[in-house]
């Protein structure tokens, strides 16, 4: 009878030992996964900062003027190019005669 109890206790100790090893392995795996996620978050934050700086650079008036001139063939207005529009007197009053 005592041998059966000893064998049962030995089996329980072995089972709990294996459970302890598995649990500590899982804890280490999860800890390394958290570290990877933190590193990925820091990388994404740095990318977001870089993209915000690029967006700010692209939206400056000098950059907009450069793109308008080079890609859209636009040019600055000059008084010799401007043609004023003169409205008839009846149109100036809102279209009423």
From TrEMBL:
One of its GO terms (biological process) is cell division. It is a single-pass type II membrane protein. Keywords: Cell cycle, Cell division, Cell inner membrane, Cell membrane, Membrane, Transmembrane, Transmembrane helix. Pfam families: FtsL. InterPro entries: Cell_div_FtsL. It is found in: Cell inner membrane; Cell membrane. Coiled coil: none annotated. Essential cell division protein. May link together the upstream cell division proteins, which are predominantly cytoplasmic, with the downstream cell division proteins, which are predominantly periplasmic. Belongs to the FtsL family. Part of a complex composed of FtsB, FtsL and FtsQ. This is Cell division protein FtsL. It comes from Roseateles paludis. The lineage of its organism: Bacteria, Pseudomonadati, Pseudomonadota, Betaproteobacteria, Burkholderiales. The gene is ftsL.
